[in-house]
Amino acid sequence: MAESKRYISQTELENHQKPGDLWISIQGKIYDVTEWSREHPGGALPLLNLAGQDATDAFVAYHPGLAWQYLDKFFTGYYLKDYSVSEVSKDFRKLAAEFSKMGLFEKKEHGTGILLCIIALLFSISVYGVLCSNSALVHLLSGALLGFSWIQSGWIGHDSGHYQVMSSRKFNRVAQILTGNCLAGISIGWWKWNHNAHHIACNSLEFDPDLQHMPIFAVSSKLFNSLTSYFYERKMNFDSIARFLVSYQHWTFYPVMCFARINLFAQSFLFLFSKRKVPNRGQEILGILVYWTWFPLLVSCLPNWGERLMFVVASFAVTGIQHVQFCLNHFSSSVYVGPPSGNNWFEKQTDGTLDIVCSSWMDWFHGGLQFQIEHHLFPRLPRCHLRKVSPFVQELCKKHNLQYDTASFWKANVMTIETLRSAALQARILSNPVPKNLVLEAVKTHG
């Protein structure tokens, strides 16, 4: 006689959503991923953020078909009572299956190899300009070219963190360390930890690190309630200093973006020298040391401090274009307070994301981020296919009356500044003092 299935309720599942006790549901089967969270390639945060709920859509989005065969070892023997799938999720999973049948997740073309050659060329020209010219203008242009090479290396770091851009995992890792740690001074390990949290909790003010820039920026007045960052594990205090800085954020946005990579340097160091488990920590630190060897040495080859400062500012400012691009896709979109939900994966990703409209010949400039909605829904999809799948995503959104927001690059900048200005003006209102009763304000925010 076949053994009858054992069921648990959604309420019982929700009891397993804390460190040391992580259960998730995938297609109605309950899995205990507590131990796996320590080894999970995407880090523990995605599992912690989705624990106690259905995570099927996130699993489909982030994992290849081969990953399904490894789930059984985490199976608890329980099934979710009254498990059901929304029509949106059904269509999303069908679409993912169709893309898989078409081989889109495996066909990466040869863009990475070409891009690596372009990066090497830009870097070589920049170094040549510094070492072989006495012209201050050439030195300025060399700094700009170096910044542009950092932008392009950033696209490789982004892509290689989501899927294998090289012929093997080993070469993929080499590309990550070379373009991220060695060339740009940014820890690829830190970026993956940060970026995975962003994707899972897209536009959650408490869980998405890409919106947690207090006291410098606040994209919503909800942040004035001194919310807690569950990523950085600290309170985002809206005090007098934050009020002052946020009040002028629509003016300071672009100047800050010109030097935003300084924050990335700091975050990389904090991550690599923290007590948390860092995969391949030695490789990461060695790569960072390579950067902090060649870059200061190159700058020291310039004839005087004026040109050295000019070179560094030029390189950082050009790279600021990429930091602006990172903000455009989310700053002006809908935000929410609270943890991410696996039950409305498709809706949350589309609601909190904006696509940039551009001609195909400008795709190199945006590095795939112009199709941010498609990228968030299918993060493993190589960027060369994002334009191809865009009509299918639009059709699905139209079918279910869901958001599919697009704007030109110029309009996206305008929308971002308008969002920052709106929050800045609210921060200036003296009749809206810094909340003293944080519990009451939190209840109002959530309620």
From TrEMBL:
Lineage: superkingdom: Eukaryota
Pathway(s) where this gene product acts: Lipid metabolism
GO molecular function, one term: oxidoreductase activity, acting on paired donors, with oxidation of a pair of donors resulting in the reduction of molecular oxygen to two molecules of water
GO CC list: membrane
SUPFAM superfamilies: Cytochrome b5-like heme/steroid binding domain (SSF55856)
UniProt feature coiled coil, ranges: none
Chain ranges of the Cytochrome b5 heme-binding domain: 5-89
Pfam families: Cyt-b5, FA_desaturase
Keywords (A to Z) from UniProt: Heme, Iron, Lipid metabolism, Membrane, Metal-binding, Oxidoreductase, Transmembrane, Transmembrane helix
Membrane topology label: Multi-pass membrane protein
Alphabetized CDD domains for the sequence: Delta6-FADS-like
Stretches that traverse the bilayer: 111-131, 137-156, 253-273, 285-305
GO biological process: lipid metabolic process
Subcellular location: Membrane
Family: Belongs to the fatty acid desaturase type 1 family.
UniProt name for this protein: Cytochrome b5 heme-binding domain-containing protein
Species of provenance: Gossypium darwinii
Lineage of origin: Eukaryota, Viridiplantae, Streptophyta, Embryophyta, Tracheophyta
